[in-house]
């Protein structure tokens, strides 16, 4: 090795030793003839010192070092007079004996510090420099630790990691598939997997029993909503199990991760049915770090001549505790915020429970003090609280109220990133109606099994068929989801029929899986976690971008390597493809 | 869980317990009114018994079970009268109390046994059934264990696993890149990585110091030679190290794997220079399980009037010990084998050292007994040995002799799959001449550093510039290769120049890396192992196909899912591409 130690390990125990370090110049300062240089590597920071006792050439060389120069330095470990007890190496410094510049550095385009002055775009272009900053590097170290602990946990439970193929087959359902032309099979394409779903099910048919894989998946879709075209899943599947087994094992995995990586012991995860989550939070991924559950008010407020309530399918409210002091202006701003097209509420009704005990609503014309007292009772409101109410069509008003609840949770400081609130959401609907294509789609995917008692509803009331499907939600973010799968050919065919596949289409696309079901398929089910998202939650970040070493931007571009890019005519000829647009 | 135990764990210690198993019917036989059923899962095989003490309906149900039916069975653990001590569960059997068919099975298209009757194509189509067979499943279990042990070893040494992108940039060097059209960036393409080379170097520039990744890579090339379009690499890189450090750490990793996974303790790996490997074995990946080194004979045989030798650039031989008894016919067959176009030798000269002490060559006309005695001395031959000699142009004759040596090694039983002979090959040439393009190519890749003392030769004698490059060879197979990289912009530019890049091209394609070198790049180097190949060596297989769960065939097709395949017109329109061939 070029070095004897790293920049993070020398302490008072090494006093007097002659050591060699390698690293980057973090900063350098001259103080009355003495030059102090901080040298940095992945493990920490060590202070070098060149003073009057140092050879003059060496001192001059030290003074010439710029930020981010890569150096190799040999010296003697001395006790510092001016100790910095904040860092492990803060009690010592190195009296330089030899100094070698391994590589010079231009002045970096932004500060390589925990707080940098670089804008997002600049840092993306020089990602390799941004990765030098502690916060970003720490995210990737965290990610590594998490992956190691996941593998340890699953290996201990006899799970086998099996690599499934990346070059697979495009399906008509796969509108968001990336495709890959095959040179050896001209005119034909592979697709990149959106998930290894069918392969992991085949592994169950093969008897693998407990499979997992930490694996890249791909989706060619718009990248709003903090998504990436390539993302990483913790993909898992088990045979001969019930839903209960899966919930227990993967709750265990999540708890193991929190315990080993963050030192946090989580208690048993609560469970909630999808229908309840929608009713109480207007979301299938409620943020349960705070209560503020929806209060349904139809029985309380209808029939008093207020047409907005009287005509509404659903009237719901939340109790924003302690915000009765909100001014009219603040409430108006909130109303405007709710009216933005992304949310689309038509208006906000409120009722203040003033600290003096008076109730004051925005619809006093229709409701007297007694009636408002009933409201307050429904909300379990106390003096000082503010009741916020929306009315309209059920699905829409729940969505709007979900947004308002989250906003109020944020304003009230109830969404602390260091507080983790996991929740299992169970009994998802099997199908969901799609307005655009005017047909039902699989809410999870076509391989999810319906609850046996709901199968008769497939023909009569498909929207109300419940699935053996579950999501794991933490702090309002879905981090995993799965289901017990269909393992019977006839039921799988029926499912495809209800999804609008002809028998021929179903056979052409998924024949291999349905055939497999005829050769002894065991009952099975599984789950997949979004690993990027899980890492971002562990890192306390809102975006997944900084838990990924080389992420792409919102246009799916890597601005550092400038990709995607045009390819040579000759290469397209070899692949027997043409583009129908020209790229400058 | 549906079961209380697996089919591999019940022993005499469980006698009298009531247990539940799930699994596949391996076989079933009736013996005088008693039905024995072997039920199988991933963990083993357990015998069920239904006899006169069993309820009649249950006995009938048991008799109806076909091969590969999936069953759940509850019963009592009894001691067997007829014990099978070859399997862990062979001392017990289960008296069936309850039996449930979880799924029926059609008769499988081939036998699900260690030795099957299915042909390769049939087994590929029903890969999910082939994966049920012990030998194939064991390979994947082995692969899982190896990956776990690799991660443990590297994690312990502070390596961090970082995921690098799969959607990267195509380069003109990347004639074998798979490309992926981008929907969001019409007319532009990503490429799939042939290796994460540039990204791991950027991670070194970022200060990550010790990186690894077990990662899928892609190459769109002809699949002779047991290759796959997608393959897995153990990709590693380190900063602030010398070649010696890399050799030690990854020799350590290999030794750790052999020790923990196979229980084999390997001693220190020998090292050999590329030039010596070529001279002694005619190959940069010699199989060192056996000696049979080349003997150079120019000094011994030239000048005796035998024109084939006199005109040859190089005359080399091997001593095929103990084969003096080969008949003329056997030698003729060997000669014909050598003349096949794949090898292309023009003739084989031999000299028998008969057990009676006589020397008899195929060129007795030119060489007398005394001269043949000199030959024997050069070969260190003893009575009973056969000397086999080829002559011709150096590179060609070495290649031919390499083939002959390996063939003789096989014939003499010197290539035992359970004997492992690792070897480091060092000091590879930096460049190799390509007849087709009439220019030099990088032998490893353009980022490999030349030996500093050879840099001046770049202009005068490029073919003789040695690189800081090394391969790890086991049993004649290259399982890993790497180099100390260039970390200096000027040297990297010079390298691109010698590889025929214009300055503009180099900047366009690799500008991001060369720019990175200007912002403080540390000295670094690394290695990548072919994980599929390593697994196949551990599994004692000639092909990598059966250490991969879902491999592709020689045409790059997955015949199980029928991929690649044509995609819909609409999808191509969205991607702004067209194919220039039509697919039926």
Explain what this protein looks like in three dimensions.
The structure is a homodimer of 584-residue chains. Chain A has 584 residues and is α+β, with helices and mostly antiparallel strands. Among the domains of chain A are: 92 residues, Beta Barrel (OB fold (Dihydrolipoamide Acetyltransferase, E2P)), CATH 2.40.50; 126 residues, Gyrase A, domain 2 (2-Layer Sandwich). The first copy, chain A, contains 17 helices and 23 strands. In chain A, strands 6-9-10-22-21-20-17-11 form an eight-stranded mixed sheet, sandwiched between helices. In chain A, strands 1-2-3-5-4 form a five-stranded mixed barrel. A five-stranded antiparallel sheet of chain A has the order 12-13-16-14-15. In chain A, strand 1 and strand 2 form a beta hairpin. Chain A is globular, with a radius of gyration of 30 Å. The model of chain A has no long low-confidence stretch (mean pLDDT 95). The interface between A and B is large, with 126 and 125 residues. Strand 23 of chain A pairs antiparallel with strand 23 of chain B, so a sheet runs across the interface.
Largest interface (CB within 8 Å) is between: A-B, 126 and 125 residues
The total beta strand count of chain A reads 23
Helix content of chain A: 25-40%
Low-confidence stretches of chain A: none
CATH superfamily of the domain at 290-415 in chain A: GAD-like domain
Structural class of chain A: alpha+beta
CATH topology of the domain at 290-415 in chain A: Gyrase A, domain 2
What count of helical segments of chain A does DSSP give? 17
EC number (chains A, B): 6.1.1.12
Family (chains A, B): Belongs to the class-II aminoacyl-tRNA synthetase family. Type 1 subfamily.
Function (chains A, B): Catalyzes the attachment of L-aspartate to tRNA(Asp) in a two-step reaction: L-aspartate is first activated by ATP to form Asp-AMP and then transferred to the acceptor end of tRNA(Asp).
Protein name (chains A, B): Aspartate--tRNA ligase
